[in-house]
Amino acid sequence: MPRSQNKVASHRRRKRILRQAKGAWGARSKVLTVAKHHVDKGLQYAYRDRKAKKRTFRQLWIARINAAARLHGTTYSRLINALHKKSIDINRKVLAEMAVSNPEAFAEVVKFATA
Known about the structure:
Elements: H1 7-20, H2 32-71, H3 76-85, H4 92-101, H5 103-114
């Protein structure tokens, strides 16, 4: 019996990898084995950086909240503690956005939490 190669599936797989490598420099977008390594590494970086993105945004929010809280005579940790004690559930993303775009409302939140 002759050997079956399943050309349709293998061609589709190679085409998918080369499509993912489109825009890469030199052989990384043209040669299948090089493109495969490039795509695999790129997917690893994408997975890692989706996690890192969450960390960096949280750091940014905390820095903004801390800066705004210090303008009102308190610190980030004291403010968050006061919010938890008063059972105010505002996440850091919303607090940071409020501190930047609506300082009056942020001042009210700080005043209410620390009172």
